[in-house]
Write a structure and sequence with these properties.
The complex is a heterodimer of chains A (about 625) and B (about 200).
Chain A lengths: L2 H4 L7 E5 H11 L4 E4 L6 H9 L7 E4 L3 H13 L4 E5 L1 H17 L5 E7 L13 H6 L4 E2 L4 H18 L3 E6 H4 L2 E5 L22 H12 L7 E3 L6 E6 L2 H12 L5 E6 L1 E3 L3 H10 L2 E5 L5 H12 L8 E3 L19 H12 L31 H16 L4 E3 L17 E3 L5 H9 L11 E6 H18 L3 E7 L28 H7 L4 E4 L4 H12 L4 E7 L3 H7 L4 E4 L14 H6 L4 E4 L4 E4 L9 H5 L5 E4 L2
Parallel strand pairs in A: 2-3, 2-4, 4-5, 5-7, 6-7, 10-11, 10-13, 13-14, 15-16, 15-17, 17-18, 18-20, 19-20
Antiparallel strand pairs in A: 1-8, 6-12, 9-11, 21-24, 22-23
Helix pairs in contact in A: 2-3, 2-7, 4-5, 10-13, 14-18, 15-16
Chain B lengths: L7 E8 L4 H14 L3 E6 L9 E9 L16 E4 L2 H11 L5 E5 L6 H4 L8 H11 L2 E5 L1 H8 L5 H12 L6 H11 L2 H19 L1
Parallel strand pairs in B: 1-4, 4-5, 5-6
Antiparallel strand pairs in B: 1-3, 2-3
Helix pairs in contact in B: 1-6, 1-7, 2-4, 5-6, 5-8, 6-8, 7-8
Classes of the chains: A alpha/beta (about 625), B alpha/beta (about 200).
Chain lengths: ~625, ~200
Amino acid sequence: MGISNVKLDSPGKEVLLTGNEAVARGALEAGVKYASSYPGSPSAEVLDTLAGLSGEFELYAEWSINEKVASESAAAASFAGLRSITIMKPDGLNVAIDFFTSLSLSGIGAGMLLVVGDDPAAHSSIKEEDSRYLTRLAHLPVLEPATVQEARDMTLMAFALSEDLGLPVVIRCVTRICHASSVVRLGSIPRFKARGELKQKFPTNPQAHADIEKKLRDLSKTDGGCVYTGPEGAKTIIIASGPSYTYSLEALETLGLTDRVGVLKLGRTWPLPENELLNYLGQADEVIFAEEIEPFIEENVTSLAAFNWADLHPIRFYGKRSGHIAGPLGPGIGELDVDVMIDSLAAIKGLDYDRSLFSQDLVKHLGPLPVRDRSFCAGCPHRASFWAIKSALALDGRNGFVLGDIGCYAMGRGRTGFYLLSSVHCMGAGVGLANGFGNLGQFSFTQPVTAIVGDSTFYHSVVPSLINARSHNSDFLCIIVDNETTAMTGHQPHPGSGRDARGNSSPVVGMEDLIRGLSLPVYVCDPYDIPATVNLITGLLSQKGPRVLILRRACSLVAVKREKRPRVYVDQEICLGDGCGCNRFCSRVFGCPANIWDRERGKARIDEAVCAGCGVCASLCPQGAIKVEEV
Amino acid sequence: MITNKQPFNMIFAGVGGQGNVIASKLTALAAVDAGLRVNVGETFGASQRGGTVMSHVRVYQGDRTLGPLIPSGQAHLIIGFEPLDTLRILLAYGNRETTVIVNNRPVYPLNVLAGEADYPNVEEIMKTMGGMVEDLRVIQATDLAFKAGSALSTNIVMVGALAGLKCLPITAELFENCISGFFRPQHRELNITAFRLGLQAVSN
């Protein structure tokens, strides 16, 4: 793991890589020259890695303003004869899909890959979404790596496939590939001076639809890297893609079914390898689908079977759609793992499987084990911002509300943000919704409307909403919580950062200038100064028309690395404990993980292992018992 | 020892911000340097944000196709950075033969700080785990990390403790090489000290 392994010039050597690094390595081995992305988990580290190596391997890499621009700029490189790659999560593909549906009809030049990091169970997403439906809509072939090694192998070979077809090719990686690490055998990285030139035209051609359908039909006659493991002529076949393949193998081993059940692993999941599938459908009585998020393969294989029904004998199908492959929450949410496959296979095969797990009774005497909610980090400026907004809304007293958005601050809908958010949808949606609420005046709507967005989201998708708000004079306050980075995905830069993906300094597209350019009033405040922030917001809530407030303070995870932290401590002589009447404000209400309770003394305390030294709690303690000491 | 457990399943369990992703990464790198195969599965969506975080590390010898996730009840070793979350992970992934190394310092969940839930008594948690498994090692990892110079090195104290258990064919020297290679020069000494304190804590 780490960039030093990704760049190793040692063909045949085996090194530890993450799935994201393996994708980057495969692209380097294919001679990629242009990489663009907007950061999204779980695939953000692909571009982080390529950007880190861009100087050494003479490629261009950028964090684009959003996924649509990323896709378009990567296509430009392809048109100019340079292999390119663009990386996003499914939410980003939703933003970019308009371009891809036309790109397949114009064709491309040099090989172009679209890497989508799907996140089954939504570990680090607002929702789980299966990108295969959209990429199918755009007529793009899809490859799904089952292991980290395959992430490298498929990325490498997909460029040639893309050039053969004249279409972008999709690599669909799920979280358990992107964020997994394993030993990968390396190939060689070509070093060459690339030259770009546009030599032909690429207009979208609606008539090309027929050609594409033919290309995909022809492609469906090839095996697309499928691999069969198991006994000859097995009557039960699992059709698997991605890491579900490895889960299936381990589940069969655990249940002692390896001599009775075969596993057909698909490499390419769109278009499906029809000949291979029909071959196995012809021998099987039972077909089980192991795939993540939606029953995409299940639906398309059963459709294939229906078209060939006359040549097949009756088959029972088991999968997500049939309800047989399901985690504890049902087939709709969650990822597969070995346990889900064991339980599902045992149920289908009528086997008993006893895991001999510990009984929950063993911990009964401890009482219910408290759950662990996610929270803003210690010192996070968002906590201060949310507290200030909450206080201002309470002072205003007109039942105002806050529309949320995607980023760390989306956690503000929970305890850590004082349950402040009334909505959270997709990037930019909060300000879009505010536009609508702000236009409801003629319907006796009187509640003050506030939308909260991050700095990276502002550039990504909020600017058009603000233009709309200006031109329709919509009534709302847009608050940009500017922590000077794209924090949620690992601190990638944005157009306001003054540095690019490669670490070079770059022109700053100033937030205030941009907003003033839209003829909108803009205010700036430091959220750590809570009284000033509350005052300012309270005043802004009663103004009319669209207005913007920037609450600016660097992400505490960044600040803690570059600044010396003051020591914050509780003077327990001053703290009145439960006698204060503050209801333990610092630990119970403000909820910073560094504000803990000293049970022995019945007083507040600071956990020095956690405290970031921001001192905001000191400004809120009614007794002034929390002290900040510069060190 | 790994030779009779293939794969050898380890779970690093903790709370976002405790550095368990780096601990699992260093262990995986050391395993590869020792000629072993390794698969790591992380869930780091919540890694910096106070949620329960675990890394699955599966170490084995020879070629095989193996997924990154450890099935429930099949962990051979749990390296726990926090008492409550270690207990939680032990319940789901452990069995009687599981070895547990656990840091004794709690990180309180928000609802505990808010007074809506109780954090069980730490000694009771340890006693409970001691009754569940044969081999439980309680380490004062955060205190040792402060002693090394920074609470941020708690994760490296835990890696030291793991090395001290000698359940993997990886020498302490190899671990130290990986740690030296991983951290910037100004942080090397701190982390090597932390590693050695963890190692000693288990060896004693």
